[in-house]
Amino acid sequence: MSTRIHSHERDQDFSDVDRAALLAALAAVLPAAALLADREDLKPYECDGLSAYRRLPLAVALPEDEAQVVGVLKACHRLGVPVVARGAGTGLSGGVLPIEHGIVLSLAKMKRILALDPLARTAVVQPGVRNLAISEAAAPHGLYYAPDPSSQIACTIGGNIAENSGGVHCLKYGLTVHNVLRVRGVTINGEIVEFGNAALDAPGYDLLALMIGSEGLLAVVTEVTVKLVPKPELARVIMASFDAVTQAGAAVAEIIAAGIVPAGLEMMDKAATAAVEPFVQAGYDLNAEAILLAESDGTPEEVAEEIAAMRAVLEQSGATDIRVSADEAERLRFWAGRKAAFPAVGRISPDYYCMDGTIPRKRLAEMLTAIAAMEKKYGLRCANVFHAGDGNLHPLIMYDANVPGELERTEAFGMEILRLSVALGGTITGEHGVGFEKVGAMCAQFDSDELAAFHRVKSAFDPQGLLNPDKAVPTLHRCAEFGRMHVHQGELKHPELERF
Amino acid sequence: MIDEFKERIRSGKPLRIRGGGTKDFYGNAPRGEMLDTRAYAGIVAYEPTELFVTAKCGTPLAEIEAALAERGQCLPFEPPRFGAASTIGGTMGGATVGGAVAAGLSGPRRVSAGALRDYVLGVKLLDGEARELTFGGQVMKNVAGYDVSRLIAGSLGTLGLILEVTLKVLPKPVAAATLRFEMTQAAALDKLNRWAGQPLPIVASCWQDGVLTLKLAGARAAVAAAQGKLGNGDTAEAGYWDDLRDQRIPFFAGADDNVPLWRLSLPSVVPVLDLPGTTLVEWGGALRWLRSDTSAAAIRATAAVVGGSATLYRADAVTKAAAGAFAPLPAPLMNLHRRMKAAFDPRGVFNPGRLYAEL
Q: In Å, how far is B121's CA from the nearest CA of chain A?
């Protein structure tokens, strides 16, 4: 196979970008307050939620409307300047890590809810609107926006589109892709395109689905129509303790096999509950090797029926203790521990590295056993929180960046988890995105033909590769380099490429 | 079998991909040499507790649904089978899973359960250069790489030959009930939208000829409570929903040379359309079927003005060729479509013209 893959064979070089010309061109299309170029002003944009990677951009553009977005993109397109679009910067994969010779395009100022139609159950919002703000605006009508990533108080809908964000309720209510009807965006050449419409489907290719989760590589989002759904009358959560994580895993399979789709189904191992409990006093059973949180929502009748059914399954599966939230305050307390897992681990360790692989649920025991072995191998501790309903595992590797070699050991530990996720039939990222962080790991999941197909998709939207370069999809050159470092069981994933 | 497919693709001659042939009417007229997928069939993996099924493209939907039913599960998006229930000479005929995914059509429960594309977890396909590519997988949460699997859904076979698909499956609702109310279309549209804003287990709806039929499904208690709340509609026969799903009810009957059948996908709150013809309303108002002789331009303009689109679903060959099956796209969007086609099928091998003349 000798198909030519243009510039995607190697990382691009943007070192010839003319800073003065760029700033002049941006100043011509933006109000003065919407353009940052001083070093101290750029500092807050040097990283996202994954602070291990930092870079300063040449400038930050903060457009106030779509016309300014078009102006910025046209200028960058003309001058060959790379653009990294950014929402709230809460991402966990370095997806908005700036590029040295490029700009950050922050959509933070575009934060208006343009329309909310309670009868149609839709809201039209600008990309900088916070996830939770949509649900707050919809609340008086008994409606809400279903995807609820843990960062929902801060993260924006534009960022949710880029990452196809989920949340603890996505088993029942779906991901971003299931809850968005329409995305309006601007391509790198300044053209405005609408993907989807106000109806449930639109003619042609489903480019809406392609846009969602495209990590800012295809177009810049300027407007979104989301679906709103009725708020369930009642929600209750069961907390069950287990003597072994394998038992907890088996219980999850039994719940699904019983025909139940819980509104939320989460697992935490002992290391995670031990970190969380002193922090939030959720009332977790600290003797349990694993706890499960299983939520039911709906009408009071429905919830009573489902809670009874789940309780029966959990008892049969060997739960050592079962508690059902008595009221809303207790339900929120049970969840508070799970939602605070990341900061809680941040409290007991100077740094932590959150992984995001998804595995088939039945392979959970294998994965957790392997992670325990890796803790010994790398001399690092790891706490595990798990979206048990959908197989998305968040091992939190604890390390200290100030100890020489620990970050490198942590990265190697993480990479081993991701490789195992793929080997077990899963994926390197369930919801945090590939970003900058896992671009190398993509080579473990996709072969050269598939990566080349991704690059052709990218080129269809952005032939010069100016939107968020060096993220999400690795160049084949990078995979060759990566393969040299990680030859797996003697198999080379990209044998056709020259090695060096 | 795959090698045979590859050879056909490499020959460069335009191919008309076909499974059970139940949707030959859909889209623009098929062109090219027939490539029959039915021999490439079988369920590859079905794991009830992992909630997915993987099947080769030629597998009859009926076979998949029978396997799911044994474990109390289903395809909640209810793809139309167009007579798939028939068993011909020991093998099941009817719609195949490859065809269902390529067409991307969903049935009555779509409004509550989501569309076919929402359930596609992964695909394996041959692109226009006969390369075997795998996207997505068998897990529900997977954001590695672009979501090509969902892009393939509804692309009418124009981007690649689907070899294998993985679909998410769900448990069948424990209880269901069908209610019937007499009311005008305007009243039905109003009621449907108001009900949809409340936590009621209404999973499907159909209005026709002054009668609104509702399907309730979910937990036993929820269905019973909702029946109480909605009042005493008449309980109708459950087989109605299968007939609606497979478009066997009289509204859909009749050959393609009858009055053209339009499929209008609209915001659910759009009032009764000011278009001549007979109407059937599904999806809580978001899907309006229209049998009408009115000009394509008028129907398409009406749909576009309210934020939706109109597909010429069934019509005689001349009418369809003149109007095109699908609403024309704005130029920037069509440009992206052309480039997307070139990215997967640069030589234009697969189903030329089936979606749009330009693709």
A: 12
